[in-house]
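Lab notebook, design round three. We kept the backbone fixed and only want residue identities now. Task for the bench partner: fill in a sequence for the structure below.
Input structure tokens:
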């Protein structure tokens, strides 16, 4: 299983966290794989050490994979969670009040956006 945290907006526009797992299937010598998912594009990203982005919605429904560094994300209801290198997020709050994001460490942070 691969653990993923989803960020989404409810019918009132409030953002929330939800944890889920993607099942993996034994494919012998090549390891364990998930079912295929169709994607639209991939974007590589680097942000400055001082990255601290106030409330915003996601530009697209997308997976975010943290390559190095960590982030703190805050929902519109004030719930905060920290995510570190290797974390995977499914960001779906493309409407509503959005979420805040800031670096946990004062260093460049690299990530990958996989747009759905």
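Proposed sequence:
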């Amino acid at each position: 299983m691969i653990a993923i945290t989803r960020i989404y907006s409810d019918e009132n526009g409030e953002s929330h966290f939800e944890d889920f797992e993607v099942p993996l299937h034994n494919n012998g010598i090549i390891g364990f794989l998930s079912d295929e998912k169709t994607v639209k594009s991939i974007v590589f990203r680097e942000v400055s050490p001082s990255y601290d982005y106030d409330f915003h919605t996601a530009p697209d429904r997308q997976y975010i994979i943290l390559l190095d560094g960590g982030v703190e994300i805050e929902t519109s209801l004030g719930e905060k969670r920290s995510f570190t290198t290797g974390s995977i997020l499914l960001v779906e709050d493309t409407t509503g009040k959005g979420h805040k994001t800031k670096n946990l460490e004062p260093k460049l942070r690299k990530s990958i956006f996989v747009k759905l």
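Keep this in mind before ordering anything: The first strand starts at residue 2 and ends at 9.
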